[in-house]
């Protein structure tokens, strides 16, 4: 098991993400608009992190049941305890749209192998491409298991990072990054190999100097 991220790490990740979204509206808008592929009554956000509510604004349809799973348990401590005004907005949105939310503080590998829950859409933002080789294949077969026939699998990933060594080591320790994930093209091949049909793929080339990534990759598949 990886070491768990302290709540301060989760808070900083959340606040930094909101600041970056303000600074880079083109980049955030690019992937957020693609979340319109997330549809249906039941939705699973794999490795949701503290952006659980933030992603919800961009779904193609308002779900009835929205589940976030993350092995960093402090994700959910933070989401429950923080008084951040943006989180309050997310919670109000959930209430006013009568969405049943559920937090699962465990590894998707353990949970998805056992659960009876099924979803119309399953998505991951910055998560699927952190797993490589057999782990990636296993993740896909588990996501196949929990997705309803005709349901959507949506991936968002970033390519070409410019982390400092310290940032990278911290991300590995807390399972925010991986070491042997697929290249963007491999990811498309590997997901299709698991049986999913590609519906659309888009790429945005970004300015590495300022954004600190080379590109953003989004793809949507159907089971
Ligand atoms: C790069 S972060 C992305 C967080 C969030 N989705 C976002 O958009 O910023 C990767 C997330 O995946 C979670 N994670 C990594 N391995 C996991 C696993 N086996 N099961 C569930 N969550 C996992 C991490 O705890 C972390 O929150």
Structural key phrases:
223 residues; alpha/beta; seven-stranded mixed beta sheet; globular; binds S-adenosylmethionine
Q: Name the CATH class.
A: Alpha Beta
Bound molecules: S-adenosylmethionine
CATH T-level fold name = Rossmann fold
Q: Please outline the major beta sheet.
A: 7 strands, mixed
Low-confidence stretches: none
Give me the count of strands: 7
Instruction: Estimate the strand proportion.
Output: 25-35%
User: Helix/strand/pairing class, anyone?
Assistant: alpha/beta
Physical arrangement of strands within the biggest beta sheet: 3-2-1-4-5-7-6
**How many structural domains are formed by the residues?**
1
What's the mean pLDDT score?
Answer: 97
Shape: globular
Measured between the Cα atoms of the first and last residue, the distance is: 30 Å
**CATH H-level superfamily title:** Vaccinia Virus protein VP39
Describe this entry's structure for a reader.
The chain is of the alpha/beta class and 223 residues long. It has a single domain, classed as Rossmann fold. Helices cover 43% and strands 25% of the residues. The chain contains ten helices and seven strands. It has a seven-stranded mixed beta sheet with strand order 3-2-1-4-5-7-6, sandwiched between helices. The longest helix is centred in the N-terminal third of the chain and has 17 residues. The model has no long low-confidence stretch (mean pLDDT 97). The chain binds S-adenosylmethionine. The site of S-adenosylmethionine has 18 residues, from α6.
